[in-house]
Amino acid sequence: MLIGIISDTHDNLDRLRAAISTLKSRGAARLIHCGDIVSPFVVKAIAEAGFEECFGVFGNNDGEWLYLTENFKKIGRIEKPPAFIEMGGARFAVLHEPMPDDAMAALPVDAVLFGHTHQPVLKDGKPVIVNPGECCGWLTGKSTIAVFDTAGMKAELIEL
Residue 94 belongs to a domain with what CATH number? Predict the structure, then answer.
């Protein structure tokens, strides 16, 4: 199963829709958001994509927790990080802000997913460590996302 991974959308609906289109065209059935959605209306755009399941964590720029939580209930759930979930047969640690590399590498999961830095990271291993970078493209000028394949426990970074 392919799972889309995004982070740091920061209200950029155009880039979010491009990310969703790319993920759907690649066959991603589920979505994980690593925080900094920012406004609740962004969740509506995610809901329109029709993913089977969505999960997210709050980021440091997510101030409207009440309505983000309410809107997320329509598509899945959102929690305070760190969150430990299972999706598509894989175990994930979902963070917004990264932990030290050795701490992330020691987590008993298949993959550690985080955002916050706006810089894409992909480290193969057990666990796979992934920062999809910034979907919004505001800071780096590059809009990036990732997909995780649960069949091979591998991730791929994608520049939009």
Answer: 3.60.21.10
From first to last of its 160 residues, what are the pLDDT tens digits of the chain? Answer: 999 999 999 999 999 999 999 999 999 999 999 999 999 999 999 999 999 999 999 999 998 999 999 999 999 999 999 999 999 999 999 999 999 999 999 999 999 999 999 999 999 999 999 999 999 999 999 999 999 999 999 999 999 9
DSSP for residue 103: H
Our count of domains for the chain comes to 1
Q: Whole domain around residue 110: which residue ranges?
A: 2-159
Could you write out the DSSP letters of every residue in 117-141?
S-S-EEE-SSSEEEE---SS-TTTS
Instruction: List the beta bridge partners of residue 4.
Output: 31, 147
pTM over the 0.85 mark: yes
